[in-house]
C-alpha cells in the first residue's frame, strides 16, 4: 500500500469536505475547439468543463515553451461514472488489502478517486491532462495518466522521488503553466488539476467553492 506523505491533505479530509459550495451557475463548455483533447468517451463528454476552467487552461497553454502543448484527457465526468470508478477501485483495494477497516479503505480510495459527493470532475471543475509535442506525441511524465499508486509504486504522486530528470522537468513545466493560471494540483495525481471546487478552495484559502455537481 503506497501511502501519501504526511503533509498531503486528501480530498476526503474533513477540512475539505466542510467547505461550502456557492454554485455560480457557469455553463459547461466544450474544450475541443480551442485545446488538444485526447479521443475518449462517445459524444465528447470528457472534453467538457466549466467555462472559467477552460479560460484558465487556454491562458496556461499560451504560456508553455515551444514544443509543448496541453493535452486534455478528461474534464467533466457524470456522477454515475464517478461512482463506478470509486466503487471499483475501493473493491480492488479491499481485495488486495483485507486488513483495512472501512475508514482506512475510504481514505486509501480517495488517494486516487474522489468520493462522489465532493468529486471535482462531476462539477466540471477538474481536468486530467498531460503535455504533448506539436505532432501529438505525449511527453514522458514518469507514469501514464490514471496509473494508480499501486501500479506506479507511488510515482503518480506529483513530487514522487525517483523520477527521471526528464519526467521531473516535464512535471515542473506543467505546473509552471497551470499554477499562475489559478489551478491547483491534487498531489497524489500529477495529472489532476482543478479550479473552483472544494479542494481548490481549501488550497487557496477561498471561503467557498464556486462549482458543485452539475449535468451536461
Structure description:
The protein is α+β, with helices and mostly antiparallel strands and 216 residues long. The protein has 7 helices and 7 strands; from the N terminus they run H-E-E-E-H-E-H-H-E-H-H-E-E-H. It has helices spanning 14-17, 51-63, 79-96, 102-109, 149-152, 165-178, 198-204, and strands at 28-30, 36-37, 48-50, 69-74, 126-132, 184-185, 192-194. A 5-stranded mixed sheet has the order 2-4-5-7-6, with helices on both faces. Strand 6 and strand 7 form a beta hairpin. Helix 3 packs across helix 4. The protein is globular. It starts with 13 loop residues before the first helix and ends in a 12-residue tail after the last helix. 39% of the residues are buried. The mean pLDDT is 93.
Topology:
Layout: H1 14-17, E1 28-30, E2 36-37, E3 48-50, H2 51-63, E4 69-74, H3 79-96, H4 102-109, E5 126-132, H5 149-152, H6 165-178, E6 184-185, E7 192-194, H7 198-204
Parallel strand pairs: 2-4
Antiparallel strand pairs: 1-3, 4-5, 5-7, 6-7
Helix pairs in contact: 3-4
Radius of gyration: 16 Å
SS strand fraction: 5-15%
Number of helices: 7
Q: Tell me the distance between the termini.
A: 36 Å
* Shape by Cα distribution: globular
Task: Summarize the structure in short.
This protein is of the alpha+beta class and 216 residues long. The protein has 7 helices and 7 strands, in the order αβββαβααβααββα. α3 (79-96) packs across α4 (102-109).
Amino acid at each position: 500500500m503506497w501511502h501519501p506523505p504526511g503533509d498531503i491533505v486528501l480530498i476526503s479530509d474533513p477540512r475539505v469536505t466542510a467547505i461550502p459550495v456557492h454554485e455560480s451557475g457557469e455553463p459547461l463548455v466544450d474544450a475541443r475547439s480551442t485545446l488538444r483533447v485526447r479521443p475518449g468517451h462517445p459524444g465528447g463528454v470528457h472534453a467538457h468543463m466549466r467555462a472559467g476552467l477552460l479560460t484558465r487552461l487556454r491562458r496556461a497553454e499560451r504560456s508553455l515553451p515551444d514544443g509543448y502543448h496541453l493535452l486534455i484527457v478528461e474534464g467533466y465526468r457524470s456522477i454515475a461514472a464517478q461512482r463506478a470508478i470509486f466503487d471499483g477501485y475501493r473493491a480492488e483495494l479491499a481485495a488486495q488489502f483485507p486488513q483495512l477497516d472501512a475508514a482506512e479503505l475510504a481514505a486509501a480510495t480517495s488517494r486516487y478517486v474522489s468520493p462522489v459527493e465532493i468529486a471535482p470532475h462531476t462539477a466540471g471543475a477538474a481536468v486530467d491532462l498531460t503535455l504533448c509535442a506539436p505532432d501529438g506525441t505525449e511527453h514522458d511524465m514518469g507514469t501514464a495518466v490514471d496509473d494508480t499508486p499501486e501500479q506506479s509504486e507511488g510515482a503518480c504522486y506529483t513530487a514522487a522521488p525517483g523520477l527521471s530528470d526528464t519526467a521531473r522537468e516535464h512535471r515542473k513545466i506543467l505546473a509552471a503553466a497551470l499554477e499562475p493560471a489559478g489551478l491547483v494540483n491534487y498531489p497524489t495525481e500529477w495529472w489532476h488539476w482543478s479550479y473552483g471546487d472544494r479542494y481548490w478552495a481549501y488550497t487557496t484559502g477561498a471561503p467557498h467553492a464556486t462549482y458543485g455537481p452539475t449535468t451536461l
